[in-house]
Amino acid sequence: MQAAVNFAQNRLRTATLLPAILICLMVLMGRGTSVAQTTSRPTNAAAPSDAQKAFEKMKTMVGSWQGTVMGMSMNLTIRLTSSGSTILYEATGDGKRPPDHEITTFYLDGDRLLATHYCDAGNRSHWEGKMSPDGKTIEFSFLDVAGGTQRGFAKSLALTFIDANKFAGELVYMMPDGKPLDARGEFERTK
Fold it and tell me: 50-189 sits in which CATH class?
């Protein structure tokens, strides 16, 4: 009988103490995190990666642009979105043929500059960007494509910065028969 009473008392103590112990641990863990956060701030910021440098270069393109690609007038709107973490590149043509408001997003993923091109062909090409050693060109190479490729797909993109108000773009489009089509254009800033 005494053993049953001792067991019941120990169970009651455990039921009472366990939540208190857990609360103390949570408080201590929370304090440890805040102390670590306040004491572990680096004194020297790390140098930006090549991908970060390329992304910063692309941010200078924010604005409106006009140009011609394969004899077709094209307007571009380039803007920052998602609190500056994504660059949205919107292309509209003359309405007679594509592009019909295609978009491309450029974003950082760790030390990689990535892009997703939402094509009029109904698919999404994924690219990785690398800046040339002279810092004038960012070349986006093919990673993969999501969606069907029956109507072709955009294989690569290169952006060459001529000056603050002018750049050239070159897109390689893979036709349904597997042949590449090079589409090159120059664009001037309109605002």
Answer: mainly beta
